[in-house]
Amino acid sequence: xxxxxxxxxxxxxxxxxxxxxxxxxxxxxxxxxxxxxxxxxxxxxxxxxxxxxxxxxxxxxxxxxxxxxxxxxxxxxxxxxxxxxxxxxxxxxxxxxxxxxxxxxxxxxxxxxxxxxxxxxxxxxxxxxxxxxxxxxxxxxxxxxxxxxxxxxxxxxxxxxxxxxxxxxxxxxxxxxxxxxxxxxxxxxxxxxxxxxxxxxxxxxxxxxxxxxxxxxxxxxxxxxxxxxxxxxx
Length: 234
Fold this sequence. Notes:
Helix content is 67%, strand content 0%. The chain is mainly alpha-helical. The chain has one domain (8-232). It starts with 7 loop residues before the first helix and ends in a 13-residue tail after the last helix.
């Protein structure tokens, strides 16, 4: 499997999708979704990048795009550049998932939640609020077990987008809670974080659902034109 940037054509495509990511990141999100993980619209483009590129290309396209978008639509908080690292993580995980490299993702999904739950900072937070991440983990384990059977294009697109976006969320959570950045960067009290967790349990799954549905629609529309999608063509 190719894990490097393959050609000059790939560089052009990386630049195009990085530009698209920058636009979607810089654009202000709906006020109703501001309590979720993403303030902009990164979650719509991130999984598409993962589907269309190999993991390394996806990583570079996403990180260039999200950092440029943060600069263009700067929201007055330099710390957000750190949390934006979740975007290239999510894009690369989506790429791995769509290409069937599930074992590496499973390790990440085992280690990251373990670090969260073992952190003393997580003890006062509602664990049920991460239900969408648990769902992604269950689907990942189930798919890993039955992966000898070829999945449908619909399932492959939705599953990859879901697992990738939740991987993005996990990285942001690890930075925010186990590393205590909510205290030493923002000065937030635990009660405020508890409120964020409760609200996000409804908002973030909506964002993940929108990103997954757009990935399905665009992936189906482009089947046969993108190399990695051709094997799913009817």
